[in-house]
Amino acid sequence: DLNDDDVSLFDAEEDAGRGSKKSKIEHPLACFFHLFFRVSAILGYLVCERLATFIAGMVTIILLLSCDFWTVKNITGRLMVGLRWWNQVDDDGKSHWVFESRKGPGKKLPSNSESRIFWLGLIVCPIIWVIFIFSALISFSIKWLPVVIMGVVLQGANLYGYVRCKVGGRTNLKNMATSYLGRQFFKQAMAKQEES
Q1: In what order do the strands lie in the sheet with 2-3?
Q2: Predicted local distance difference test score (pLDDT) of residue 164
Q3: Separate counts of helices (H) and strands (E) for the chain
């Protein structure tokens, strides 16, 4: 069950802002930590067998992944692209997912640079963890499988949540993809008809 309440993302003084996008990085610390925990977890996975015991490496990677999940979900998404998502449980015990994006003419728009950094980090890192799953399966490193699955789950959850925020909380992703493919097919058919 989705809840699409229009709740202010930031305080009023933060929301009153520019009308045009800048390419300047306005939140350098948020950009740093958006990538720091993600890249550190990936590098930790790549070098932990050579530098540490399995338990120390596993705990370190899971802590880095957890810090990344919390930082991206609660801080960098709000600051860098104006999106946030969460789950709330009402008094009846029903779970409601809420996906928000900054809307309205007076809202502060994210900078192009921060938006690129955010989405690249959000998309590329889960793909790397999926590659690590196949790598662990092919090399029979079954002991590392729970760690890489945790990487896919935590970073994939943030990716899913922010994609839902971007396209709208009530939009079904399957319907959106079908609609997009249908439009592309229609455009190609029209272009071929015009060539004839």
Answers
A1: 2-3, 95-101, 83-89
A2: 87
A3: 6, 3
